[in-house]
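Handout, section B. The chain below has 130 residues.
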Amino acid sequence: MNIGTLARELGAPAKTIRYYESIGLMPEPARSANGYRNYAATDVERLRFILRSRALGFSIKEITGLLELWNDRGRASADVKQIALQHVSEIEQRISELQSIRQTLIHLTQKCHGDDRPDCPILDDLAGEE
């Protein structure tokens, strides 16, 4: 299968697939006589794994580790679980930070009159004047 077909099948831009190849997440595919990339079924599975991992927010570094575990049939599932739980912890931290940002913005918008006057507590806060 060529890169265009692969991209359509998995819903990923060809540029993304080439990027994953350039950083080593995807192996260099075989080339046809005309020089076009030719992907095998194993490449499709690997790319699907990478895309799903990215959709769940794993970093490139984490995906590299997950791919190594995926390919190691002698792996311990505890190793995979540890990576996933660490990722959950990082997500929870980001959620907490976003909730704090949200509360700050709600507070600032409640203090702002939103009228024709130039006074704006939101801008004052952003400028560090509050």
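Note. The mean pLDDT is 94. Compare this with the example in section A.
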